[in-house]
């Protein structure tokens, strides 16, 4: 009996040490795992934090765009027409939108209006083609086949389109904002456009107190515009009334173009 009691005392003496050892082992393992494991809220490597972004072409429909859609079609891919380098061909599917077989159809605008935004899209054009993105339907960032050009104008790819008039013949009234560098890829390659746009500001009486501004425009990852302030809308829309919010317009009546990965993120007013 005495021997059994002594063994029990020896076990109880050793037991706390075992508990401590286990606790230390668990704590070390947990700490090592915490160091090795990525943060749960971190965006995927090479990706963008998707919080707040509105996808405009991922639904497989034109639900985000006002009808009529006219000749716009959905596709899975776009390519240069092997019979004509100035036209596109496309494969049936989703994820890509194309402005029809002739490359000339109605412009489309979003159902929703936006003010200050971050914006992203990818575009694909053939040789000599011409398109654009108009913020609030009024302020245009130009899409154009400018590959290889040395002298750049506001009408070149990544430029902010010049003020213009339709009559008696279409002509420019200023130079717009030429891109800082020629970042345009050759026709037949997908290209990216990233824009941060700030809408004009108005007081309680509706009087404009601050101009619209392109804070930043990136073409294929290269800075082509920075802090470009606009006193009026671009192109022949320059006399139109400015507004605090408006739709995003994709130009479709000047040449073949395909778009994909179109998304917009409203940002808080300054």
Describe this structure in words.
With 270 residues, the chain is mainly beta. The protein is built from one helix and 16 strands. Strands 1, 2, 3, 5, 10, 13, 14 and 16 form an eight-stranded antiparallel sheet that branches. The protein has a four-stranded antiparallel sheet with strand order 4-15-6-7, with no helix packed on it. The protein has a two-stranded antiparallel sheet with strand order 8-9. The protein folds into two domains: 1-37; 54-266, Jelly Rolls. It is globular, with a radius of gyration of 28 Å. The longest helix is centred in the first third of the chain and has 35 residues, at 2-36. The model is unreliable at 15-48 (pLDDT under 50). A hairpin with a 5-residue loop joins strand 8 and strand 9 (171-172).
Q: Quick one: overall form?
A: globular
H and E string:
HEEEEEEEEEEEEEEEE
Uncertain parts: 15-48
Provide the CATH topology of the largest domain. Jelly Rolls
Tell me the structural class.
Answer: mainly beta
Q: Please, what is the CATH homologous superfamily of the largest domain? A: Exo-inulinase, domain 1
Kindly estimate the percentage of residues that lie in beta strands according to DSSP.
Answer: 25-35%
User: How many structural domains can be distinguished in the coordinates?
Assistant: 2
Question: Kindly state the mean pLDDT as a whole number?
Answer: 85
In total, the number of strands is: 16
Helix percent reads 10-25%
User: What about the largest sheet?
Assistant: 8 strands, antiparallel
How many whole angstroms does the radius of gyration measure? 28 Å
What is the highest CATH level, the class of the largest domain? Mainly Beta
Tally of individual helices: 1
Q: Provide the CATH architecture of the largest domain.
A: Sandwich
* Termini gap: 84 Å
